[in-house]
Predict the 3D structure of the following.
Amino acid sequence: TAVVGEIEISDAVIPSSGEGSAVSEPSRATTKVLATPVARKMAKDLGVDISTVKGTGPQGRVMKADIQAAADTKAPSDGAKAPSADTS
Amino acid sequence: MKTYDVIVVGGGPGGYVAAIKASQLGSKVALIEGDRIGGVCLNYGCIPTKTLLRSAKLYQDLMISESFGIDIENLSDVKINWDNLMKRKDTVVNKIVGGVEQLVKYNKIDVFKGYGHATDAHTVVVGEETLSAKNLILATGSSVLIPSIPGIDDAVTAGYVIDSTGAIKLPKQPNSITILGGGVIAIEFATLFNSLGTKVTILQRSDTILKNLDADVRTTIQRHLTDTGVEIVTNSSISRVDNGTVHYTHEGKELSVTSDIILASLGRTPNLKGFEPLGIKVDKRGVVVDEHMQTNVKGVYAIGDMCGKMMLAHVASAEGIVAAEAIHGDKTSINYHKVPSCIYSFPEVGVIGYSEEAAIEAGYDVGTSMFPLSANGKAVAEGETTGFVKIVHDKKYGEVIGVHIVASHATDMIAEAAVSMELEGTIYDIAKTVHPHPTLSEIVMEAAHGAVDKPIHIIKR
Amino acid sequence: MKTYDVIVVGGGPGGYVAAIKASQLGSKVALIEGDRIGGVCLNYGCIPTKTLLRSAKLYQDLMISESFGIDIENLSDVKINWDNLMKRKDTVVNKIVGGVEQLVKYNKIDVFKGYGHATDAHTVVVGEETLSAKNLILATGSSVLIPSIPGIDDAVTAGYVIDSTGAIKLPKQPNSITILGGGVIAIEFATLFNSLGTKVTILQRSDTILKNLDADVRTTIQRHLTDTGVEIVTNSSISRVDNGTVHYTHEGKELSVTSDIILASLGRTPNLKGFEPLGIKVDKRGVVVDEHMQTNVKGVYAIGDMCGKMMLAHVASAEGIVAAEAIHGDKTSINYHKVPSCIYSFPEVGVIGYSEEAAIEAGYDVGTSMFPLSANGKAVAEGETTGFVKIVHDKKYGEVIGVHIVASHATDMIAEAAVSMELEGTIYDIAKTVHPHPTLSEIVMEAAHGAVDKPIHIIKR
Ligand SMILES: Cc1cc2nc3c(=O)[nH]c(=O)nc-3n(C[C@H](O)[C@H](O)[C@H](O)COP(=O)(O)OP(=O)(O)OC[C@H]3O[C@@H](n4cnc5c(N)ncnc54)[C@H](O)[C@@H]3O)c2cc1C
Ligand SMILES: Cc1cc2nc3c(=O)[nH]c(=O)nc-3n(C[C@H](O)[C@H](O)[C@H](O)COP(=O)(O)OP(=O)(O)OC[C@H]3O[C@@H](n4cnc5c(N)ncnc54)[C@H](O)[C@@H]3O)c2cc1C
């Protein structure tokens, strides 16, 4: 029989062989916060712990408006504004 | 001896992008190229094939122009001018290669013409020159693999068997072509020649073309190719080549097919010659690298086709940027599950992430939703209704983990999926996004609606 | 008297989608339509124009097929078959309208044929029937506005002046056409007729066509139309119409243009007849609604063109879903700054969000980045290099707030921007997303790179 190369150029998907998929297997064990990039940046900026914010976007995604609202409600009482480390 | 911060060997889409990025980040960069800047992609791959496919699509549309209300008195007055086809391809390639040469120059990169070889991890010799640098980026690409089939060497010598580089510069249009292999490149050439009126036969060893793609994509493309006249023989085992004749067995029968030209598209192998002294680790896919593209040898990086991860130009470029950034101290990486790939068949294919099968295998709680192109207004208006979109999602959060599009503009459409996945978008986000009417992209939204609940524009029982 | 949960008046893309969504959410729904299901969009707007434009594009490509390596012995043997063009358009429209009729039926919606009028907020009369419902969704759309120009009424009667509905069913191809107005519809018809070889003149009152669009888009399209033979007269004031002749003043001079046909594309006005008893508030754009599409009258909703927010089919549909959801108790809304709109010119236009001017006016700290299509490999391969992408972002977090694309496939490409903006994506996210090569979508990534720092593929001084 013909010897056919292992490697096919521009082959669309990485085969699920060990080495290939090990590169980038996502870690799916942890619960994550669905949030938009802008919301995350804003949370860091305004010292809001994003994991405590209830998202109003699709499927509870935290949107920038949610962070703004969280920052607005805590701002008057909370003068210290400890910046949150959570930037997941 | 000339000293640099970074030496890049190979000027393809991996190497030249790595060189530009490294230079933009402040490194002094040398780029060594033995052939032409642009590599396989610009000179023999992506660009020439897409240029020819553009003409082929026009020819195909022209043949059915009557159905669009445009009459051509004598269709036999319409002729493919092979010389002009080739000339246009060369013009396009030269223009783009010239542009990249300008870019490289503008970015103050020293270019050395010639094939380089390394004497150690910091020294590369090219012609009379010896260059030294702290970091080395290898980007030498891959070459066609001609398998050892009895008779094939003679047939190559006699000009019957060619590779993709030969296929884009044929002196005249073949009446018939046999394509060995059923990967992406094979399918693009099948599309090209079939549309231009050449009789095309595909001999595929396994039971399907385009293996690793989602089953729905595979079967749709296979059926469409067959419907438009391409002969596809799966489960075929080639026994011997005799000039233009390929002998093969299929379902226990000894068969043969004779054609003007045989295109071998059976795989590629990494270009490693001249780098043996480095002792870099290689497995059966290619050079082994960590997530920042560094090989087992410190300061030696490898990117692109030679690593064999996903043999695509944009992957080579993205890896080039990762390598340049790593050298600069920025540790970035690529999630290959978020990298799109395309087939420029008619209709086109654009896919990203997990196929349904692969997602199940990876342990996701998989949901899928499909929406056919035939229910899309723009597709009907354009008269191109073969295709669909299929969204694969993780039921946990509704995160989109795979998108598979077959549609006339699928290669443009897949960017929406890529950016959605980069942003960890869910089916809810895509469903909520207002898509313009009438566009093919509406099917993406409809499929997302279908995944969430109910699509508007289909009868779903 | 028949009783429903929801009565929808008008079966265009606003009304039929609202009806289907309401039914999917469990309501008993009546849909009243005086003409054909599908409204302006399917019958006289989006679909027929795009069907004709498909043929026009093919004809245009065919005229330059030699440059693609395809020879046609006698270009004069290529003829537009106007009857077949019209037949194809009708076939496409009927197919899609038939599909929507099926959908409506499948979703168990009672359809009443005829023009309805309301006697109060819960009662609609159509023909012999009186229907009652707790909620009313008005979706009656808009009609062409023929301005009062001396002589225009006679010219309408004589068949010289037509509207867009007339323009898609001309009995034969005009040799020349004068288009009054420079909005999206005007530009699409200019593209259509110009590509088919009709002499086109546009008379525009203000100093630019396509006002409200980003200045770079406007000038690119205006220049391209002019370059391809369309005569555009801006700052023109029409004084009188005399059969096929339009008299106008331009830069103080009295001028005139005579053509076979005059297309009036000067605006549209909401269809409100029959709903006067409801006392709904209307301003100069149309019916006034809150963010859930409710009018000032409780239980009476209005959607689509009659509200005059963005006169687009996908906006009407999205508003229909919002209204149906509001009735069902889900308070959703639309952010109109995240709704794309398209122009099917050659090249196409796809835009979303703020133009540079509008963003500055709105008080953003505006950053912009442009990347030209001429530096894109796929565009060169396709021979269609007119265009660019322009990304407008808020410098604070890099959020993308506007994307403006001119490119042959811009209408497909804008979906990427739409989903990015829906997910509050930044220029960093788009730059990081691996885009497939070679595609037009790479320019989006390059522009994002340019916004962040430096693009790879351009000489940026
Ligand atoms: C027909 C065809 C069509 C394709 N279409 C597409 C497509 O549409 N989209 C897509 O994404 N991909 C496509 N590909 C794949 C794409 O071309 C490759 O993935 C891409 O070129 C890999 O880039 P690279 O930089 O790793 O290597 P290459 O592009 O192969 O470049 C390597 C360069 O290194 C030079 N070189 C090698 N050894 C040395 C040395 N010792 N010293 C100096 N120089 C050296 C070579 O001359 C070459 O120029 C196609 C490939 C083919 C064959
Ligand atoms: C030439 C042209 C091209 C266009 N191209 C595009 C495009 O490419 N993309 C895009 O997004 N938009 C396009 N538009 C705009 C688009 O057609 C409208 O925005 C869309 O149709 C509005 O939908 P609607 O449901 O609000 O109203 P309509 O589509 O106007 O539907 C209203 C319906 O209500 C019916 N009706 C009215 N009064 C009554 C009554 N009293 N009783 C019963 N029925 C009634 C009418 O018969 C009609 O069918 C185009 C428009 C034109 C004119």
Notes: The pocket of flavin-adenine dinucleotide (ligand 2) is lined by residues B 437-438; C 9-15, 32-35, 39-41, 45-46, 49, 115-116, 139-142, 164, 185, 271, 274, 304-305, 311-314, 316 (CB under 6 Å). Chain B touches chain A through 59 residues (CB under 8 Å). The domain at 339-452 of chain B is CATH 3.30.390.30 (Enolase-like; domain 1). Chain B is about 35% helix and 25% strand.
